[in-house]
Amino acid sequence: MRAAGVRCIDCHEPHSARTRVAGNNLCMTCHALPVPPAPKIDPATHSHHQVGGPGDSCIACHMPQTVYMQRHARHDHGFTIPDPMLTKELNIPNACNRCHVDQASDWTLKAFEKWFGPHMARPERRRAKVIAQARARDQQAMPELLQLLNGETNAFWRAVSAGLLKRWANEPNVMGALLASAGDPDPLVRSMSVRALEPLTALPNQSLGAALGNRLSDAIRLVRIDAAWALHATVDTNSAAGLDLLNYLRHNADQPAGSLQLGVFHLDRGDILSATRYFERAVAWDTNSAPSYHALAVALSLQGRNDEAVQELQIACRLAPRDAEFKFKLGLALNEVGKLDQARAALEEAVKLDPQFAQAWYNLGLAYNALGKTEPALESLLRAEAIDARSPQIPYARATILVQFGRVEEARSAAGRALEIQPGYPPAAELLQTLSRGRAPQKDR
Question: CA angle at residue 155 from 197 to 208, to 5 degrees?
Fold first, then answer.
């Protein structure tokens, strides 16, 4: 609707927020004539329900109500088309079964296919499936997300695809697409593209630096702030964008989330003590915020306060038991305080929650090896290598374990794989030189 130029005041009085016309007649102001690009609709036949009955209401089907904050029933202004196929496959609610609660989605789907036939196999259905795939971290969604980003005419969906591609931003084709969309004509697309590129800012990439640097002078304040945040570890706080960012952070610092973000700002600029104070404030203000406990744990760990870090991470994991990142960090912290078996258990939980978590598989392999579990260690490292084929560190770690047990040829192969990924990778090159001289490092006893 927004992409077609429909505004709030086209339907609502700007001062009272009341609808300008009652009932279905409001929708028919565009759909009766029709007003392009709105399709023409015959209200007598479109709903397939009794005229004037509850099922004949446009808003009942296309703007169903959802109760927010346990008290506020709002109409869905996505103006969506009910699709029982998506209910059946992805558990996405549809307006029909909200009313026909005694029927299953198969019953609704049969009625839809009778009424609308192949029309229901529309592009929106495929798009919903791709987005669901991406949210499930399925890499198979990546090509179609790139198609959306590069070819979708609706800027909102381009922005959605940019945000979902953040997980794969280090893939060359994804990075290239996001660098291009950072200059999109629509500010929402530019904003989401900058946010998706943020995790890559540590890379020495001139194109990335130039793309984000250009957005620091964007005409839209939101985009300038997003670009400044992406570069917050180094951005000049006396620049226009830097001042925009500081004003934004300080304005929100009296709220838990704002205090948390300001803490991250200081942490990434090397001011650990200031960061710790803001994280402690965020935790005190919101004792149910797992991210705040996690951030505080990171700051404590950087100060060598590892036992305290473990305690904060345990709280974070209790508050967010399905978060793999928190379990992973807990595993690292437990390893730091010498609780190897507990560290192994936490890392096992992390990869169970997110089987595509390459770094967790890597550290789990190291934990198994430290506990003398050689085969599970090698299996975990192979899993990590299959997920992240660009890290020379993973096959090198596998090589060091193999050589400790006299499996020299396998060790050579693993070290060679590390050098294929990163030619000249020093640890792997040194290991191969040692093996070529006929000496193998001794297994720690």
Answer: 20
